[in-house]
């Protein structure tokens, strides 16, 4: 049997530097803070850490607007601190991957400053510049595309009298991947600089947006505005395979892995190509099927829990199908990241009597799904969304504030509309993942030292007394202890749980998720109760063959023929070899 690559069996822990741990009391997380908690991370059973952008940046979009790929945002630390973090991670037997953000830079990057300085600057073509079109004498952008953060994707540049493209904020101009010289500069500065320093791979931001194809007007899907959703046009353009092949020449020199972020890609055939081993485009991708369940293109206009369990299961089935024979591809398992609200709140219940059960059941479910497993900081202790009572001023994300401003402008500050906007942010805003990590019941929840000189940059949660890492480490009944147990089981039954074939055994069931995992003729069963009520397990008798034995339940006081509210279980065939 050929040896499996490390990134298939590894469990990845995602770190958001601003909110993980503040070592020097300025209210902002930092690299020394991360280094100080590497033993904690290792103790969870994690094999790989992923660091969200720690590069020099004006922080318009929390570091996804990079000013200098070869430097570190000073409040986080220095390049030397990064070298130490890489060494300390490796010394503990873990790998480290970074965020590669090269669809766009900051508007303060020296490349863009040159590009915008004149129409004949040698770097003019490094970004995407277009002349205006004039409609009845009125200046209009080249097309009607809406940016991911509301408004047009085109920004008028007064000085050089052209528009430039930005799929995200105006402060995040898109690089022109059509230009070979630009691509070479990207590889050298953003990739090789860090590969030479020993990083093991990249989470590749918005990777499917490099090739934009023809930039024609998008169809009108939102009559309330001039600017229209164009995600299916600017994602997965005609030159993607070529660009990725070129990138892989660099990555191969360092044996580096990739996990590419793939928004707006419902076409599973295309996803299959990205992750196919033969195609060598990306090792794996993050699809949005599961985390976007129930959402249209305008996520905040969705009401909470606007999906059925069969829809949720369907999304999981699509991602699991990526490894179904005869596929030579690979897949990922995740419910959270820095762009999502908390999974307990979204997919189970954050009511006090249910949150622990919900967190454990999701841990069990995730640990039983095939593919590389990603955990986001705080998920391992069951952190939830912040409360509805928090005012709009606590939301710091540009995505949230732009949405709220858009609603205000469109409805002329209609109080009901604004209340609805606040409510949808309470459910879905990216801010919920970005509050300081709850380490303990010390001041600032242990995120900053007690002698801190500034408040944490985002308000710490008020529930640290019932949810913090320190207490959970010594509590046998905690979400954290359960995650550790599940990750051990996942390693022990690696073939079945990480590589097995997934089958949903009761697609239409609105309350219970029951799926099997099969590897070389052996089949495990996973059952999860997604309701807050007891459910009979009788239906299982028909599915479960006599030889099955309970491997694990997510509740302590288990009842034989009943599933408790938010209980999950895994059954194994008797005599299975670990
Ligand atoms: O996100 C890209 C993306 O398409 C979405 O997840 C985006 O966050 C969403 O449309 C907003 O509602 C990546 C990063 O993960 C995100 O943090 C950055 O803001 C974005 O790229 C720009 O770099
Ligand atoms: Ca700090």
UniProtKB/TrEMBL annotation:
Q: Which Gene3D superfamilies match?
A: Glycosidases (3.20.20.80), Golgi alpha-mannosidase II (2.60.40.1180), Oligo-1,6-glucosidase, Domain 2 (3.90.400.10)
Q: Name one GO biological process term.
A: sucrose catabolic process
Q: Which UniProt keywords apply?
A: Glycosidase, Hydrolase, Maltose metabolism
Q: Which GO terms describe its molecular function?
A: alpha-amylase activity; glucan 1,4-alpha-maltotriohydrolase activity; oligo-1,6-glucosidase activity; sucrose alpha-glucosidase activity
Start and end residues of each Glycosyl hydrolase family 13 catalytic domain: 14-434
Q: Name one Pfam family in it.
A: Alpha-amylase
Which CDD domains does the UniProt record give?
AmyAc_SI_OligoGlu_DGase (cd11333)
Q: Which PANTHER family match?
A: ALPHA-AMYLASE FAMILY MEMBER, NEUTRAL AND BASIC AMINO ACID TRANSPORT PROTEIN RBAT
Q: Which family does it belong to?
A: Belongs to the glycosyl hydrolase 13 family.
| Name of the protein in question | Glycoside hydrolase
Q: Which organism is it from?
A: Decorospora gaudefroyi
Q: What is the lineage of its organism?
A: Eukaryota, Fungi, Dikarya, Ascomycota, Pezizomycotina
